[in-house]
């Protein structure tokens, strides 16, 4: 099957810094990809390039289209939620639904009204009267009613309380995602998305430092809890990262044989956030 | 069956109306209402002061209107009443000028500032259609509403005057039939295409500044042309004759800033031929005369320059990346 997004030699410079530095990757259909990186790593630039919101060097094809030249056509198949609270403050729920229904060929009004019925939103409510959580509910209802092939989420749950955050991803999984759709999500709240991701991409200083599906991540990386007496032995295997918990050391290894690690202590699959911290060590130093 | 392009434009303009209902609809309604109210207060004041001083105007209906009106009288009465409707429209149109000016200045700026641009850009809308919808909303829809409000205000004023006179024994109700409200409306609305074309350099310039500015679009739009003018004046003072001061102020600044004020094409020297042969003085407002400004090359040069500025605004709308 054709890749949904395929980038080759993608680059973008802002004055002296490279926001994207010769990046290449492919995203297959039916995946949920987490694009994760520290502030200023180039996540948003990558998303903007995919959405045709910014110019760039290199080759990029999204659903077989060039986002620079065929943006109008592309946006019929691509949806995005950029941050919370980008809905215009003056608009009413009724107006937003009306407008999208009439300008978007793939919007299903019935579906949208069904999603809205599950919230406390009323047709006459204006965005400026809503809490951040309600704005996201409205935005999500609009977006989930669009039969798009690619959904791009840029920090979609920033500033929401945990109830809204959990509900957001639950809705996406239950009512939206299927094998024909692809989701790209950037977030700092890694713990919340790690169980729904199928693929993981780490980005740092404009480069992709990790690009793997979750199964491969589980095979490649391992975390071992080692007592103080065998710590030196573990260090000899060149761990990515080491941290201390209750007098024991937890080592994170990349590509070390499982049998070797099991001899040292209890082996676990590392969480995405531990992996992230280990990979991004020294970013802000 | 609407074509997709027209359908898109219809909803884009409707969106502008939703967002700017206050400026486009309520402002002319309120200005008209306040104007009527002020007149009413004036009439009431006059009545009370008159009554306190024991002055009673009582017309003898028979002496004034008992003979059939001559054609000239009818024409004069009609003209006076049309004038009332034009003058209320004129007041509203000045306010409209300000509304459209600031509307254009914010049209491509406000949604970048509050980042709602990202929502609009997530929909399959072309930037060309988006920018053009703002031109249509500002220079077709807004003046249309203003014209209707202006004439309705004028009619309310006429009824108010007629009512007041009838309290003084002067029955002028039948005179109202000589007014031409539909002709006035047709004249005002018929001028809208002229207005939209004449305003193009201004709408283009304001939208360009609106799409360009990272902050304070007003400064770009207003201060820049004045600063350039000052520099020109200074250079010319030093003896260089690069560009004439007069030409710059009249044909550049005079077209890119006040063009959104309806009737700003009057008094630009485009009307030399009007006074001759105008049957009554309001003919200056008649469509044929208004459109005679189209015979001047400056009109079309301005329109083309305006389109170029709009093209710049569309390009900036597509590629400006600062959210």
What characteristics describe this protein?
heterodimer, A: 285 residues, alpha/beta, Rossmann fold, 6-stranded mixed beta sheet, 4-stranded antiparallel beta sheet, B: 323 residues, mainly alpha, 13 helices, 72% helix
* Total domains of chain A: 2
Mean pLDDT of chain A, nearest integer? 90
**What's the total helix number of chain A?**
11
* Count of helical regions of chain B: 13
Q: Structural class of the secondary elements of chain B?
A: mainly alpha
Which range best describes the helical content of chain A: under 10%, 10-25%, 25-40%, 40-55%, 55-70% or over 70%?
Answer: 25-40%
| Element-level helix/strand string of chain A | EEEHEHEHHHEHEHEEHEHEEHEH
Strand-pairing-aware structural class of chain A: alpha/beta
Query: What best-fitting shape of chain A do the alpha-carbon axes yield?
Result: globular
- What is the ordering of alpha helices and beta strands of chain B? HHHHHHHHHHHHH
CATH class of the largest domain in chain A: Alpha Beta
Largest interface: A-B, 31 and 26 residues
**CATH homology-level superfamily of the largest domain in chain A:** P-loop containing nucleotide triphosphate hydrolases
Q: Provide the CATH topology of the largest domain in chain A.
A: Rossmann fold
Give the termini distance of chain A in whole angstroms: 42 Å
Q: Strand-residue fraction of chain A?
A: 25-35%
Please give a structural write-up:
The complex is a heterodimer of chains A (285) and B (323). Chain A is α/β, with parallel strands linked by helices. Chain A has two domains: 201 residues, 3-Layer(aba) Sandwich (Rossmann fold), CATH 3.40.50; 63 residues. The longest helix of chain A has 15 residues. Chain B is mainly alpha-helical and 323 residues long. Chain B has one domain. Chain B is built from 13 helices and no strands. The longest helix of chain B is centred in the middle third of the chain and has 41 residues. Chain B starts with a helix and ends with a helix. About 3% of the residues of chain B have low confidence.
């Amino acid at each position: 099957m054709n890749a949904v997004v395929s980038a080759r030699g993608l680059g973008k410079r802002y004055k002296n810094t490279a926001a994207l530095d010769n990046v290449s990757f492919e995203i297959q259909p039916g995946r949920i990809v987490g694009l994760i990186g520290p502030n200023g790593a180039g996540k948003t630039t990558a998303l903007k390039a995919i959405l045709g919101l910014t110019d760039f060097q290199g080759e990029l094809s999204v659903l077989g289209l060039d986002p620079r030249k065929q943006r109008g056509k592309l946006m019929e198949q691509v949806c995005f939620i950029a941050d919370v609270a980008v809905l215009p403050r003056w608009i009413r729920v009724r107006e937003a639904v009306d407008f999208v229904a009439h300008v978007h060929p793939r919007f299903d009004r019935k579906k949208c009204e069904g999603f809205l019925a599950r919230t406390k939103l009323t047709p006459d409510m204006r965005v400026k009267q809503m809490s951040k959580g309600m704005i996201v509910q409205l935005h999500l209802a609009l977006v989930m009613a669009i039969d798009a092939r690619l959904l791009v989420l840029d920090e979609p749950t920033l500033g929401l309380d945990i109830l809204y955050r959990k509900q957001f991803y639950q809705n996406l999984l239950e009512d939206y995602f299927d094998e024909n759709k692809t989701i790209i999500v950037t977030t700092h709240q890694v713990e919340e998305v790690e169980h729904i991701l199928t693929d993981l991409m780490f980005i740092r200083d404009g480069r992709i430092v990790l690009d793997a599906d979750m199964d491969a991540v589980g095979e490649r990386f391992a975390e071992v809890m080692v007592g103080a007496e065998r710590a030196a032995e573990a260090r000899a295997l060149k761990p990515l990262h080491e941290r201390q918990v209750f007098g024991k050391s937890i080592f994170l290894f990349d590509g070390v044989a499982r049998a070797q690690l099991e001899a040292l202590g209890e082996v676990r699959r590392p969480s995405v956030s531990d992996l992230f911290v280990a990979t991004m060590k020294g970013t802000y130093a | 069956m609407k074509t997709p392009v027209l359908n898109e434009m219809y909803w884009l303009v409707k969106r502008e109306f939703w967002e700017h209902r206050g400026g486009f609809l309520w402002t002319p309604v309120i200005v008209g209402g306040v104007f009527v109210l002020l007149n009413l207060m004036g009439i009431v004041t006059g009545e009370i002061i008159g009554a306190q001083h024991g002055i009673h105007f009582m017309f003898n209906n028979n002496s004034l209107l008992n003979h059939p009106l001559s054609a000239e009288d009818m024409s004069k009465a009609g003209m006076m009443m049309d004038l009332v409707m034009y003058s209320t429209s004129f007041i509203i149109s000045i306010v409209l000028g300000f509304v459209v000016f600031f509307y254009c200045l914010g049209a491509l700026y406000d949604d970048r500032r509050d980042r709602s641009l990202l929502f609009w850009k997530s929909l399959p809308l072309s930037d060309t259609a988006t920018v053009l919808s703002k031109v249509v909303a500002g220079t077709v829809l807004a003046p249309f509403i203003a014209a209707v409000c202006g004439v309705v205000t004028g009619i309310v004023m006429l009824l108010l005057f007629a009512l007041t006179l009838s309290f003084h024994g002067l029955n002028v109700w039948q005179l109202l039939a000589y007014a031409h409200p539909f002709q006035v409306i047709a004249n005002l609305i018929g001028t809208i295409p002229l207005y939209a074309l004449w305003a193009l350099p201004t709408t283009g310039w304001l939208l360009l500044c609106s799409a360009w500015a990272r902050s304070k679009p007003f400064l770009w739009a207003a201060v820049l042309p004045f600063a350039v003018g000052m520099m020109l004046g200074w250079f010319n003072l030093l003896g260089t004759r690069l560009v004439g001061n007069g030409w710059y102020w009249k044909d550049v600044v005079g077209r890119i800033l006040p063009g959104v004020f309806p009737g700003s094409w009057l008094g630009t020297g485009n009307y030399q031929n009007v006074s001759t042969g105008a049957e009554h003085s309001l003919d200056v407002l008649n469509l044929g005369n208004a459109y005679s400004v189209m015979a001047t090359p400056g009109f079309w040069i301005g329109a083309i320059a305006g389109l170029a500025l709009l093209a710049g605004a569309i390009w900036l709308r597509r590629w400006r990346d600062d959210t």
